[in-house]
Amino acid sequence: MTTTTATRKRRPTAPRGGADPVVDPLAELKHYTPEEVYEMGLLPIKPRTLRDKASARQIPHSNGGGRISFTLRHIREIAAMYEVRPIGETKPAA
């Protein structure tokens, strides 16, 4: 008699960038590079695009020390900018 084993479910892994920003209480103060934002999966936008849009002042960012970086607040604002609402929730043109 042969037995079959159930397939194993994959456990979620921690982000590659280090501490989980949702759990870490100091995460709100940390500045993330465009590469970290992309690698950690915080935004599905390539680092080059983040840099270009930040340089053009199209998205919120920090420019401390002459380097473009993002706080979790910036990342939340950027995500909200790309949010699309259903047609039923939009107001008709006056």
Question: Key features?
Answer:
extended; 0% strand; 94 residues; 27% helix; 3 helices; mainly alpha
Question: What's the short version?
Answer:
The protein is mainly α. 27% of the residues lie in helices and 0% in strands.
* H and E order: HHH
Radius of gyration: 19 Å
Strand portion: under 5%
User: Count of DSSP E strands?
Assistant: 0
Distance between the termini: 73 Å
Count the helices. How many? 3
The largest sheet is: none
Average pLDDT across residues? Answer: 83
Question: Any overview of this molecule?
Answer:
This protein has helices spanning 34-39, 47-55, 72-81. With 94 residues, the protein is mainly α. The chain has a domain at 37-62 and 76-85.
SSE diagram, text form:
Layout (H helix, E strand, L loop, with lengths): L33 H6 L7 H9 L16 H10 L13
